[in-house]
C-alpha cells in the first residue's frame, strides 16, 4: 500500500458542495433535535461544545496542515473569562460568552503570531509550550480561582429575558451556537480564503511564489480557530457552570487532537463524530478510572497506524463521497 | 557568608546548583530528542514517559531484585532502551514516509499508555528512592554546602553529553550516522544497514532519557507524571536551541537550567514560566532558534 494514499493531511478533495454533505447535515440536525428526548440533554450539550472545539481545531490541522498542540489555552481561558464575567461582573450569558470569545481571539493573535514563525514539528511544540505557560498562569492567577476553579457559575437570563436554568432553553441556545459555528467553518473552508489555506497545506513555497502572503493567511486561520475554540469554551462554562484547570491543561489539548483524529482529519463531520465517541467513552468507562488514559493512548496509536483517515474519512473514501 | 544583590550567597549558590541539576536533565533529554529527530525525523513525545520508565526501572530493580543504584544506572537504561527498540520496530518504522506530525501523535499515544499503566499500579503519589550510601553527605565549600550526589549528577550528565557529542562528531560510527541523516539511500548503497542503525539510534536516545530518569530518582520522587511535567519544558528548550546541533542542545539545556534557578532567587513567581518566556523572545528575535537552521 502506498502510505501517502492514506494520508488525509495531504489529500485534496474537490471543493464543490455535494448532496452527501447536505444529507449528512440534515441527519445531524434531526438527530440533535430528537436526541434530548432519549438521552441526557446535559451530555448532548457537552458533546456539542466539544464538537465545536474539535471543528475549530480541525480548521487548522485539516485545512492548513498546522498541528496546534495547545488548543486548551483558548478553550480554557475563554471558559475562565466567560465564567468570571457571568459570576463576578453579573454579565448576561451572551455577553459572558462574547467576553470569553474575545479573550480567546486575543490569546490566539499573540500565540499565533509567535508560533507561525516556525514550521511543522516546531509549530506543535511552540503551541504546546505557550499553552503550558498559560496553564501555570491560570494556576496562580486570582481570577481563575487556582485549584478550585470558578464554580457555581450562574446561567443567567439570555438577553435578560430567557431563563437558561430551563434545560430546554439552554439546549436550544447551545444547538444554535453549535450549528452557527459549524456552518461558519464550512463557509470558511469553501471560500476563496479556504482555498488558499488548502494551497498552503499542499505546498507552501508554491503558494508563496504565486504571490500569497502565506504568513498572514496562516495567522488569520489560527486566530479564527482560536476564536471558535473560545466560543466552545465560553459556552461550556455557562452550560456546566464551571471553569477549571482541566480546561487549560495539556491533556485537554491532547483530547481535542484525539477527537479530531478519531473522526477524521480534514473532514467536515469527522470532529463531531469523534467528540461524541470520545465523550461517550469517558462516560461509560469512568468506572475503570485511570485505564481511560491507557485506552486513549491505544486509540491514538491505532488511529495513526491503521485508520489515518478516521471514521468519517474512512466511510467517505469507501463510498467515494465527501463528508 | 556574604550577600550578592541583597541575596545571601548560600541561597544564591543553592539555587544555581539546582539550576545546574535541572539543566543536566534538560540537556540529556533534549540531546536524546535531537539525536532521535536527526535520524528518524520524529519528535519523540514519549521521551518524558521513557525518562519516567528509567526512574521506575531503578525503583523496581531495588525493590524486587535488590539491585542498587550503581547497577541500576547501567541496567535500567539498557532495559528501557530495549523497549524503545521494540517500539521502533513495531510502530515507528511505518511512519517514516509520512508527515512528521504522525510521529508526534503516535508517540503522544505511547506516552499516554505508559503513564496510564504506571498510574494504575502506583497511583499518582511519589515513591521515594533511597540514595546510595557512597553518595550521601557533602562538601562544605565555605560559601555553600555541596551535596555529593548533586555534584555527581552534574559531572555524570556532562560526561555523557560530551561523550555523545564526541561519538557523533568525531568517530567513524558518528560519521555513518550523520551521513545516514543526510542521505539514507546513499549510505545504504555503501552497504551499511541503515534500518538497524535507525533502531539502535532510537534505542540509544531512549536509553539517554532512562539514564536521566535513574539519576533523577533520588532527587525527585519517582512518580508517573514526573515525565509529562518535564517534557513540555524540554520541548521549549529544543525550540530555543534548535535541533540542528548537538553542542547547541547541551549548552541550551544547561544555560536554561541556570537561568531558571536564578529566576527562583530573584523573581520566584516567574520560575515556572521563565523558559517559556525566553522561548517567546527567541522566536521574536531569532525565529530559527539559537543554534538552529531555518525550518
Tally of DSSP β-strands of chain A? 2
- Global outline of chain B: globular
Question: What is the count of helical runs of chain A?
Answer: 13
As a whole number of angstroms, the C-alpha radius of gyration of chain A is: 19 Å
Layout of strands and helices, then pairs:
The complex is a heterodimer of chains A (323) and B (295).
Chain A (H helix, E strand, L loop, with lengths): L18 H16 L6 H23 L8 H16 L5 H23 L4 H21 L16 E2 L3 E2 L3 H23 L2 H11 L1 H6 L4 H27 L9 H14 L6 H15 L6 H15 L4 H10 L4
Antiparallel strand pairs in A: 1-2
Helix pairs in contact in A: 2-6, 2-9, 2-10, 2-11, 3-4, 3-5, 3-9, 4-5, 4-9, 6-9, 7-9, 10-11, 10-12, 10-13
Chain B lengths: L2 E2 L2 E2 H32 L6 H19 L3 H22 L9 H23 L15 E3 L4 E3 H23 L1 H11 L1 H6 L4 H23 L9 H16 L4 H21 L7 H12 L10
Antiparallel strand pairs in B: 1-2, 3-4
Helix pairs in contact in B: 1-5, 1-8, 1-9, 1-10, 2-3, 2-4, 2-8, 2-9, 3-8, 5-6, 9-10, 9-11
Please give a structural write-up.
The complex is a heterodimer of chains A (323) and B (295). Chain A is mostly helical. Helix content of chain A is 68%, strand content 1%. Chain A contains 13 helices and two strands. Chain A has helices spanning 19-34, 41-63, 72-87, 93-115, 120-140, 167-189, 192-202, 204-209, 214-240, 250-263, 270-284, 291-305, 310-319; strands spanning 157-158, 162-163. In chain A, strands 1-2 form a two-stranded antiparallel ribbon. In chain A, a hairpin with a 3-residue loop joins strand 1 and strand 2 (162-163). Chain A is globular. The mean pLDDT of chain A is 91. Chain B is 71% helix and 3% strand. Chain B contains eleven helices and four strands. Chain B has helices spanning 9-40, 47-65, 69-90, 100-122, 148-170, 172-182, 184-189, 194-216, 226-241, 246-266, 274-285; strands spanning 3-4, 7-8, 138-140, 145-147. Chain B has a two-stranded antiparallel sheet. In chain B, strands 3-4 form a two-stranded antiparallel ribbon. Chain B is globular and about 65 Å long. The termini of chain B are far apart. At the A-B interface, helix 5, helix 10 and helix 12 of A face helix 4, helix 9 and helix 11 of B.
Amino acid at each position: 500500500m502506498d502510505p501517502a494514499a492514506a494520508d488525509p493531511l495531504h489529500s485534496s478533495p474537490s471543493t464543490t458542495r455535494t448532496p452527501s454533505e447536505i444529507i449528512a447535515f440534515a441527519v445531524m440536525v434531526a438527530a440533535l433535535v430528537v436526541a434530548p428526548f432519549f438521552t441526557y440533554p446535559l451530555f448532548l450539550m457537552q458533546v456539542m461544545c466539544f464538537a465545536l472545539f474539535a471543528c475549530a481545531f480541525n480548521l487548522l490541522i485539516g485545512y492548513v496542515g498546522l498541528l496546534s498542540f495547545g488548543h486548551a489555552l483558548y478553550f480554557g481561558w475563554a471558559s475562565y473569562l466567560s465564567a468570571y464575567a457571568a459570576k463576578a461582573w453579573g454579565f448576561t450569558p451572551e455577553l459572558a460568552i462574547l467576553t470569553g470569545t474575545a479573550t480567546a481571539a486575543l490569546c490566539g493573535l499573540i500565540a499565533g503570531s509567535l508560533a507561525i514563525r516556525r514550521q511543522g514539528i516546531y509549530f506543535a511544540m511552540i503551541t504546546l509550550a505557550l499553552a503550558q505557560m498559560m496553564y501555570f498562569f491560570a494556576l496562580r492567577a486570582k481570577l481563575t480561582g487556582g485549584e478550585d476553579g470558578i464554580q457555581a457559575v450562574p446561567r443567567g437570563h439570555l438577553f435578560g429575558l430567557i431563563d437558561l436554568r430551563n434545560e430546554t432553553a439552554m439546549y436550544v441556545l447551545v444547538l444554535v451556537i453549535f450549528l452557527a459555528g459549524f456552518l461558519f467553518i464550512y463557509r470558511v473552508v469553501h471560500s476563496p480564503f479556504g482555498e488558499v489555506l488548502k494551497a498552503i497545506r499542499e505546498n507552501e513555497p508554491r503558494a508563496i511564489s504565486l504571490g500569497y502572503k502565506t504568513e498572514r493567511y496562516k495567522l488569520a486561520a489560527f486566530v479564527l480557530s482560536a476564536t471558535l475554540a473560545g466560543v466552545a469554551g465560553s459556552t461550556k462554562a455557562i452550560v456546566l457552570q464551571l471553569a477549571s484547570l482541566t480546561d487549560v491543561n495539556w491533556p485537554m489539548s491532547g483530547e481535542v487532537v484525539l477527537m479530531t483524529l478519531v473522526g477524521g482529519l480534514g473532514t467536515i463531520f469527522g470532529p463531531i463524530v469523534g467528540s461524541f465517541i470520545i465523550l461517550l467513552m469517558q462516560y461509560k468507562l469512568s468506572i475503570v478510572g485511570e485505564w481511560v488514559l491507557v485506552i486513549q493512548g491505544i486509540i491514538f496509536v491505532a488511529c495513526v497506524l491503521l485508520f489515518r483517515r478516521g471514521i468519517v474519512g474512512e466511510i467517505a473514501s469507501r463510498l467515494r463521497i465527501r463528508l | 557568608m556574604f550577600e550578592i544583590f541583597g541575596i545571601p550567597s548560600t541561597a544564591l549558590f543553592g539555587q544555581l546548583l539546582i539550576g545546574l541539576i535541572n539543566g543536566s536533565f534538560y540537556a540529556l533529554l533534549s540531546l536524546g530528542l535531537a539525536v532521535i529527530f536527526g535520524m528518524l525525523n520524529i519528535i519523540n513525545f514519549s521521551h518524558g514517559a521513557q525518562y519516567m520508565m528509567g526512574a521506575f526501572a531503578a525503583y523496581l530493580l531495588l525493590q524486587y531484585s535488590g539491585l542498587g543504584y550503581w547497577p541500576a544506572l547501567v541496567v535500567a537504561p539498557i532495559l528501557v532502551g530495549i523497549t524503545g527498540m521494540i517500539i521502533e520496530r513495531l510502530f515507528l518504522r511505518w511512519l517514516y514516509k509520512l508527515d512528521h506530525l504522525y510521529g508526534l501523535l503516535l508517540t503522544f499515544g505511547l506516552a499516554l499508555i505508559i503513564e496510564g499503566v504506571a498510574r494504575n499500579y502506583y497511583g499518582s503519589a511519589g515513591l521515594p528512592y533511597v540514595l546510595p550510601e557512597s553518595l550521601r553527605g557533602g562538601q562544605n565549600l565555605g560559601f555553600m554546602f555541596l551535596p555529593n550526589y548533586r555534584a555527581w549528577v552534574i559531572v555524570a550528565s556532562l560526561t555523557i553529553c560530551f561523550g555523545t557529542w564526541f561519538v557523533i562528531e568525531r568517530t567513524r560510527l558518528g560519521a555513518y550516522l550523520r551521513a545516514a541523516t543526510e542521505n539514507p539511500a546513499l549510505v545504504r548503497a555503501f552497504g551499511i544497514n541503515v534500518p538497524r542503525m535507525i533502531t539502535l539510534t532510537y534505542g540509544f536516545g531512549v536509553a539517554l532519557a532512562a539514564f536521566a530518569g535513574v539519576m533523577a530518582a533520588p532527587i525527585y520522587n519517582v512518580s508517573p507524571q514526573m515525565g509529562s511535567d518535564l517534557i513540555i519544558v524540554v520541548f521549549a528548550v529544543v525550540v530555543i536551541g534548535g535541533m540542528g546541533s548537538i553542542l547547541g542542545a547541551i549548552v541550551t539545556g544547561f544555560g536554561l537550567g541556570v537561568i531558571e534557578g536564578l529566576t527562583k532567587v530573584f523573581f520566584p513567581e516567574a520560575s515556572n514560566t521563565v523558559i517559556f518566556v525566553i522561548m517567546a523572545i527567541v522566536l521574536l528575535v531569532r525565529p530559527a532558534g539559537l543554534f538552529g537552521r531555518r525550518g
